[in-house]
Specification:
15% helix; 3 helices; six-stranded mixed β-barrel; four-stranded mixed beta sheet; single chain; alpha/beta; RNA Polymerase Alpha Subunit, Chain A, domain 2; 210 residues; 14 strands; Ribosomal Protein L25, Chain P
């Protein structure tokens, strides 16, 4: 692990929403560490360091300070605006351990189909994989450089990290190049119906007690 993977943590003494608010006001984020049949530990972690860690797409952290363990970011609780992390769950892991996690999908390149009137439609922004914990990627990069009009790429066609396994239907479309009119129809159907689900974030409907 590099220095960018290290998160310094301290033991968290207070409980309840009042203590959590005071902790956040001091620039710390409430956290809990659990797993491997050991007791849960209430911790705090620097809010700025944690946010930077998460924004980089990292999931595997080396906890230092009050505890010294490798841990996976299992769940994040965000504020209603999706700007600040209110609480983080860490789970203990060992090198080589297989874990299931979500990874963002990033598109690269220009699809040839765009030059003949097509539009690239990015349908799946996150995927779920199982892989050795040390091989969890920050993101899955997908090249659309060979995507012609009417073509698509599915989950089964993505390049996974070493030892990685896909969780889900391999036939699910990740990205496709469609006619511009079809893209407009898709946007209209979303506007008339429910908003798309935002994956990977848990919004707060109140203060946590952990």
């Amino acid at each position: 692990m590099s220095d960018n993977d290290v998160l310094n943590v301290a033991i968290r003494e207070g409980r309840g929403s009042g203590a959590a608010r005071k902790l956040r006001a001091s620039g710390q984020t409430p956290a809990v560490l659990y797993g491997h049949g050991e007791e849960s530990v209430s911790l705090s972690v620097g809010a700025a360091d944690l946010t930077s860690f998460v924004r980089r797409g990292q999931k595997l952290a080396k906890l230092a300070g009050a505890v010294s363990e490798s841990a996976l970011v299992r769940e994040l609780q965000w504020d209603a605006m999706g700007n600040d992390i209110l609480h983080v769950d860490f789970t203990r892991v060992n090198v080589g351990e297989m874990v299931e996690t979500t990874v963002s999908v990033e598109l690269r390149g220009e699809a040839p189909g765009v030059r003949v009137g097509g539009v690239v439609q990015h349908s799946l922004h996150e995927i779920t994989i199982r892989c050795p914990v040390q091989n969890i990627p920050e993101k899955i990069v997908v090249s659309v450089g060979g995507l012609e009009l009417g073509q698509s790429l599915t989950l089964a066609e993505l390049e996974l990290p070493e030892g990685g396994e896909l969780v889900g239907d391999g036939g699910t479309i990740v990205v496709q190049c469609v006619e511009a009119a079809a893209e407009v129809d898709e946007e209209a159907s979303v506007a008339d119906g429910a908003e798309p689900e935002v994956i990977g974030r848990k919004e707060s409907d109140g203060e946590e007690e952990a």
